[in-house]
Design goal:
By secondary structure, the chain is of the alpha+beta class. The chain is 30% helix and 40% strand.
C-alpha cells in the first residue's frame, strides 16, 4: 500500500513537471501583488481596496493606509463622533477578514472629487456584502469620504483620512 502511494506521488511529480510535490515552484509574482493596480492613480487605490477585501489580504490593505491614517465615524447611539488610527484599523480589518467567508465590495459613483497632485478628497458610495455563513449574510450600503495623500506626484496614493458617512 505504501509503495502505491509513493509511486502515485512520483507519477504526479513527473507529470506536473514539478521536482517536489510538497514544494511546488514559486509563482511568477507574489500572490498578494497578483493583479493589483498601480496605486499612483486614484482608480488604482479603489481597485486595490476591492482586491484586498476580495482576497482578504491584510498586506495589500496595509499598503493603502498612510502611517498617519485616521478612521472617523459617527456613533449614532451615543450621539458622538469617534475615531481610531492605523493600528486599530489593521486589527479591526484583520478580524473582519478572518470572520468572513467572503467579502464583496462594489464602489459606486464618485460624488465629490477635488484636489491636486499630492492631496485629493473623494466621496463615493459603496455596497459591501459580507458572508459569514450561507445563512448569515450582511449587506452594507453607505458612503466614504477619503483624503488621499502622497509626498510626490510619482509616489503611490495612500489613505490618510477615512470619514465614514454611512447611516447604519
Amino acid at each position: 500500500m505504501r509503495t502505491a502511494i509513493v509511486n502515485g506521488l512520483i507519477a504526479v511529480t513527473l507529470l506536473s513537471g514539478c521536482t517536489n510535490p510538497f514544494a511546488p515552484r514559486l509563482l511568477d509574482q507574489p500572490l498578494s501583488s497578483a493583479g493589483l493596480s498601480d496605486q499612483r492613480s486614484i482608480d488604482g487605490v479603489f481597485q486595490n481596496f476591492r482586491i484586498a477585501y476580495a482576497t482578504k489580504d491584510t498586506l495589500t490593505y496595509g499598503k493603502l493606509l498612510a502611517s498617519s491614517f485616521a478612521f472617523l465615524y459617527r456613533n449614532y447611539e451615543r450621539g458622538v463622533d469617534l475615531s481610531w488610527g492605523r493600528d486599530e484599523e489593521m486589527i479591526t480589518t484583520a478580524g473582519l477578514f478572518q470572520a468572513a467567508q467572503t467579502l464583496d465590495l462594489v464602489w459606486n459613483d464618485i460624488v465629490l472629487s477635488s484636489g491636486d497632485s499630492t492631496a485629493h478628497d473623494i466621496a463615493r458610495g459603496f455596497v459591501l456584502t459580507i458572508t459569514f455563513s450561507p445563512s448569515d449574510i450582511v449587506r452594507i450600503q453607505g458612503r466614504v469620504n477619503l483624503r488621499l495623500v502622497r509626498s510626490r506626484s510619482t509616489d503611490p496614493w495612500t489613505i490618510a483620512v477615512w470619514r465614514d458617512e454611512s447611516n447604519y
